[in-house]
Amino acid sequence: MGYAEVYNAAKTDPEGFWLEQSQAIDWVEAPNKALFDKGDNLYEWFADAKVNSCYNAVDRHVENGRADQVAVIYDSPITGAKEKITFADLQTRVAGLAGALVAQGVTKGDRVIIYMPMVPQAIEAMLACARIGAVHSVVFGGFAAHELAVRIDDCEPKAIIAASCGLEPNRTVHYKPLLDDAIEQSKHKPDTCIILQREQEICDLIEGRDLEWNAAIALGTPADCIPVEGNHPAYILYTSGTTGAPKGVVRHTAGHLVALNWTMKNVYQCDPGDVFWAASDVGWVVGHSYIAYGPLIHGNTTVVFEGKPVGTPDAGTFWRVIEEHNVRSFFTAPTAIRAVKREDPKGLEIKKYDISGLRALYLAGERADPDTIVWAQESLGVPVYDHWWQTETGYCIAGNPAGLEALPVKIGSPTVPMPGYDVQILDDAGHPLPAGELGAIVIKLPLPPGTLPTLWNAEDRFQKSYLHAFPGFYETGDAGMIDEDGYLYIMARTDDVINVAGHRLSTGAMEEVLASHPDVAECAVIGVADALKGQAPMGFVCLNSGVNRPHEEVTKECVKLIRDQIGPVAAFKLALVVDRLPKTRSGKILRATMVKIADSEAFKMPATIDDPAILDEIKEALQAIGFAKD
Ligand code: COA
Ligand code: AMP
């Protein structure tokens, strides 16, 4: 069957299609039914089944002849460490850590926060939670203590698993002081913290609360896999919304297993035993789906890479890893390829390595610009597949189903909707738009298995954020179009979310932080074009009357405030003091117009603008720092 047949099969008989796909999973109690309609536009998949994710990702492979196959390759160009962990080793390590959690009183349904760098123990921690039915929530290491505290208070973890430090090329990230600070700030306190002491930095442990990794394992006995219901939350992953409060995306166990397993062959062209590499971070959804779960569920070897595309040690790192570990499918963000291209425009580093085992490069996380795609196609000599997804969906909404049928690549398009996704383009009033016209990208409900059923402790917010604007549809927050051939194009966000180096950030959250500066009366944060990172945040602040300090002093404080409150990942380095912000007559800040001015693009004067002269002031301020060129 080709793409069209499979897509149509999933559309006409979702129940039959997904039940058939579910046969690739080892169930404790197989599902009798695929889709459960919970009313109020809420749906669940395989809710009547019983299953365990860790069993499917680890134990079943040990039992089925893959015990000695390498499951995880750890490659850290930052420390020089390399390690190969077989499925049998992984089972021992994960069962031990799961036993440690049990010994600390963690049971099915308890939340566990994981705050770790790119080391194999991060994957082991996720799987250990899955093994005993605990719900993990991984927090990206680039977030500051405050962001960690917000997540601690929202999901109220019984335990936290962390490392003593992370390693960035230019500095050590002191995880433990950040963790201690976050627990100090949060109302909820975890009972236990299990800490991986890395040899690069041994941290202090707080007696009565903190346990060293191996000591914690020694206190327990290896734990078995516990069957959980198909709709049991596998994890919560926080992502940026329009406000400072992150959204806790919930992932149910069974749909996640079925959907990810389907993608490994049909999208990523992997057969069990192949090496798959997603150069992302476990703190992001890509890391959850394609560093941890997807490859392992499907019996693939996954690569845990602690490094950067450039500088660790050079722009050949990716190609060295691909050669050394015989990577068949490689997944990263366009920004990473841009970083490599900037340093090695002629692709000389690529020629130093034998990457003939590579089948394709997959890009996601942000818009893939044509220059980057063409450079990668020509330099690597393999197909380059852009695919579009969100934390909410957990895997691609649109992509090129290369393992099923490689469709022609149209540069600028992530290709076509995947089975189960009925993607449509609507105007503001909810009317379908014809091919080629730009509108809101929505997905007809129900969403396929593996996608978010709700937000953690926030069903109302789930309804309001995703389901209210277009009744019967999930609102993606992206705008775009579909062409005559059914190819999708993702053009922009329709909300205040920006994408910096493939990282999803909320300008609203940054505005909340800037507004807390004692000298700031009002502010706006926008995303301006950035050649490397796609977008970069830029803040505009108006000072309280009577504040007579040098502007550079205030802007420096603003930059520091965002780094301290949100974290270095916000990459907030541009701040400007202005007298006034451009607004509509009803007081709405004209952020989209400000973006156009900063990016030196033509714009239409908004009809509702209160005082057009303010736009000239903004332009002047931007020109002074090299933006808004005439
Ligand atoms: N822990 C702590 N800090 C982190 C971090 C982590 N896991 N990841 C990033 N940071 C820090 C960086 O050190 C940097 O700090 P600095 O301001 O002190 O230099 C800051 O956060 C901004 O990071 P980033 O935006 O990633 O910029 P960079 O200049 O360090 O690297 C790239 C640029 C393009 C090389 C890098 O962004 C990259 O590899 N991107 C790929 C993105 C990706 O994989 N996205 C996942 C979706 S697929
Ligand atoms: P995240 O939830 O961090 O994965 O970010 C999801 C958002 O990133 C999407 O809503 C898009 O705005 C953007 N995005 C992800 N992949 C792509 C892509 N292939 N093309 C364009 N935008 C993308």
TrEMBL record:
It comes from Sulfitobacter donghicola DSW-25 = KCTC 12864 = JCM 14565. Residues 3-57 form the Acetyl-coenzyme A synthetase N-terminal domain. One of its GO terms (cellular component) is intracellular organelle lumen. GO terms for molecular function: propionate-CoA ligase activity. It holds the Pfam family AMP-binding. Belongs to the ATP-dependent AMP-binding enzyme family. Residues 510-588 form the AMP-binding enzyme C-terminal domain. It comes from the Bacteria. Residues 64-445 form the AMP-dependent synthetase/ligase domain. This is Acyl-CoA synthetase.
